[in-house]
Amino acid sequence: MATPTATTKVREGETAKAKKRDxxxxxxxxxxxxxxxFAAHGIAGARVDRIAAAAGANKSLIYAYxxxxxxxxxxxxDAAVTSHIDQVPIxxxxxxxxxxxxxxxxxxxxxxxxxxxxxxxERDGIGAKSDVAQAAQSHKVKALARAQKEGKLPxxxxxEALLEFVLAFxxxxxxxxxxxxxxxxxxxxxxxxVAQLVEG
Amino acid sequence: MATPTATTKVREGETAKAKKRDxxxxxxxxxxxxxxxFAAHGIAGARVDRIAAAAGANKSLIYAYxxxxxxxxxxxxDAAVTSHIDQVPIxxxxxxxxxxxxxxxxxxxxxxxxxxxxxxxERDGIGAKSDVAQAAQSHKVKALARAQKEGKLPxxxxxEALLEFVLAFxxxxxxxxxxxxxxxxxxxxxxxxVAQLVEG
DNA sequence: GCGTAGCAACTAACCGGATGGTTGGTTATG
DNA sequence: CATAACCAACCATCCGGTTAGTTGCTACGC
Lengths: 200, 200
Prior knowledge:
The structure is a homodimer. Chain A is mainly alpha-helical. Chain A has a single domain, classed as Tetracycline Repressor, domain 2 (Orthogonal Bundle), CATH 1.10.357. Helix content of chain A is about 70%, strand content about 0%. Chain A has helices at about 25-45, 50-55, 60-65, 70-85, 95-110, 110-125, 130-150, 160-170, 180-200. The interface between A and B is medium-sized, with 24 and 24 residues. The first copy, chain A, binds a DNA duplex through helix 3.
C-alpha cells in the first residue's frame, strides 16, 4: 500500500532483530508494540515514545506509516478484529460451541476485548465505528438472521439482540479465572445458557 | 473529612450559583463536574482544568480537597457506587425484578457503567479495587450465598458466577436503544433470562 | 563488473502547546 | 482579627508531531 515497488522480498534470517532495512517488518513491529501499549493504557494513556522504544523503531516512522496516534490505533484495532474473526468464525448451526470457542479465545487473548472496550469508551460518539468492525458485526447479524429464516434459530428475538446475548454470556467469567478448573466449569455454564437461548 | 469544623450549615438559596463561600457546596460542584468529565474521557483523558471550569471553581481547590487527579477519581467513583447501591439494592427474592431495575437504572444513568469500565481498564492491576466497590460486590455475593443456603436459589452455580451472569444480562441492550419500545422488549428478555437462570 | 544516481528506510534533535500540580496573596466570615 | 475559602498566575515536565539530515539498497549506464 505504502510501497508499490517490490522492494520487499522474502528474506532469510528473520529470527532475531534484523538490522537490515525492511519497511514491512518495521511496520509489523510497530503494530505489535502498539497493540500491547493501547491494550494496556488506551488511546489517551498510550505513549507514542513508549511504542517506538518497544518496537525498536524511530518515532517518526510511526507518523510516516500511520499518520498519527489515532491512525495507529485504527490500524491496531482493525488488525485485531481481522485476526479475531479469522480465528473464531461464527457458526449458526452450533451457537453454544461458538460461544465456548469465543470464551476460550477471549481468555487466551485478553488484549482483544480491552482494545474493543477502549474503542467503545474513547471513540463512541466522536467518529463512526471502524469499517472492519462494522462489517464483522453486520456479517454475524446477517448470518443469524439467515439461520432464523431457515428455522434453525427462534424468531422470538431479533438477530441483533440474539448476538448481544451470546456475546454477553462470553463476557462472564473472564476476570479472576486463570485456572483451568474454573474455566472448564464456566465454559459449560456458557454453553448451557446459550443452548437455552437457542431453544427459545 | 477535610474540614471537621462545622462551617457548613444548611443554606437558603441553593438554586443558582451561590457566590457565597461554601466549601461543601464547592466540593459537590467539583464532584459533579468531575463525574461528567471522568465518565466522558476516563482518567488519562480527563482534564483537571476542564473540571475546574465546569465546576466554576479554582483548580487549586481540587488539589486542596481531593489531593490529586487519582484521588478525585476515587471520590467520584466511590460516590457513584454508593448512590447506585442505595438506589438499586439487590433483592434475592426477586432476581428478575432486580435485573430489570438494574437495567433501567443503567439506561437512565449511563455514566455509572462508564465509570466502572474506566476503573476496570485503567486501574486494574495497579492498585486494588476501591473499598466501597469491593464492599458492594461482596455484600451482593453474600446475599446470594445466603439465599442459596435457604433454598431460594439453585446451588448448581457459585454465588459469584450467578451474580456475574445477572450483571451480564443487564449489560445487553444498552447501546442504540434510547426508544421506549425496544427498551420494554429488552426488559422482558432480561427478566426471562434471569428467571431461567434462577429456576436452575 | 563498476561507479553512481536516486530513492526509500531510518535517525537524532527539536518545537510548542498542553497539562498536572504549586504558591503567594486576597477576601469573606464567624 | 484569625482562619478558612478562594483565586490568578506561574512552573516544570511531558508529549504528540515535525524536520533536516544520514545510510543502505538497487537499478541502470557504461
